[in-house]
Write a structure and sequence with these properties.
Belongs to the gas vesicle GvpF/GvpL family. This is Gas vesicle protein GvpFL. The chain is built from 9 helices and 9 strands. The protein has 277 residues and is of the alpha+beta class. The protein starts with 11 loop residues before the first strand and ends in a 16-residue tail after the last strand.
Length: 277
């Protein structure tokens, strides 16, 4: 594409969306984070930065810090950042960088690509032909409690002891039963989360499962697993089939699948050490 007229304007800088390979594959034909400038590549050897031009008045570090608290300003730009990375996924492998990665000139970009080149190549190879999918697994507390009440030996034994009791004894045993039911339900939920994660790992090349604090089970579906999974393109169907198996095997569980996403969870190249405007 043609070089923007303001590329050599010192009042404008380079906003970097991510790192990719220097080749002739297309870049997203979309407005950039500032609509007047479209994305293009700045290459250094076999690597390239996916960039668009932005006014440094708004995006230099001191100006950007002030605007990060302005939701009306940041929301459309954060959305544009994500949309460009998402569109790139269908065309090329990309290491996504964090929102607000800015360089004043091309020299800084070339320096970054040279100094971090080995790491960028390693990560690009790891991400090649792979997609990040998000999985959130929920459990219905009522169905979970029913499973525990029917199948847990400790709960069944204590429930049997409650039969025929009255007065204070019934109250104390009932309270103890409720506590045990809650504890065993939480334990079963943890087992469900571990089982689901292990099943998904059978079809993923990498994974990042966020810890989910197991609070007391409430009436609504409770989140028990929040994971990101890096999956080969060719394994997408198998990955979805495993999710369906999880829904059938783990009674009371349901899942939410999102993506594919820019692979933030697996982009271990350290962009925070890169030069900034």
């Amino acid at each position: 594409m043609s070089v923007p007229d303001y590329q050599n304007d010192p009042a404008w800088g380079y906003y970097v969306y991510g790192i990719t390979t220097a080749d002739h594959k297309p870049v997203p034909d979309l407005p950039g984070i500032e609509a007047v400038a479209r994305p293009f590549l700045v290459a250094e050897g076999d690597l390239a930065a996916l960039v668009s031009m932005v006014p440094l008045e708004h995006f230099a570090e001191e100006g950007l810090e002030e605007r990060l608290s302005d939701l009306n300003w940041i929301e459309p730009r954060a959305r544009a950042h994500q949309e460009i990375l998402a569109a790139t996924l269908g065309q090329r492998t990309v290491i996504p960088l964090r929102f607000g990665t800015i360089f004043r000139d091309e020299t800084g970009i070339h320096t970054m690509l040279l100094s971090h080149g080995a790491n960028f190549r390693r990560v690009l190879a790891h991400l090649h032909n792979r997609l990040e999918w998000g999985v959130r697994l929920y459990v219905d507390p009522a169905q979970l409690a029913a499973q525990v009440a029917a199948n847990n030996p400790r709960v069944r034994t204590l429930a049997a002891r409650c039969q025929g009791k009255s007065g204070g004894a019934a109250y104390l045993l009932g309270k103890k039963l409720n506590q045990l039911l809650s504890e065993e339900s939480t334990r079963l939920a943890e087992t469900y989360a571990h089982t689901a994660h292990q099943m998904l790992l059978n079809c993923a090349v990498d994974a990042h499962a966020s810890s989910v604090e197991q609070a007391a089970m409430k009436q609504e579906p409770t989140l028990i697993l929040n994971g990101a999974y890096l999956v080969e393109h060719a394994q997408t169907g198998s990955f979805n089939a495993i999710l369906e198996q999880i829904g059938s095997k783990l009674i009371g569980c349901s899942f939410q699948l999102t993506g594919p996403w820019p692979p933030y969870h697996f982009a271990s190249a350290r962009d925070e050490d890169s030069p900034h405007a």
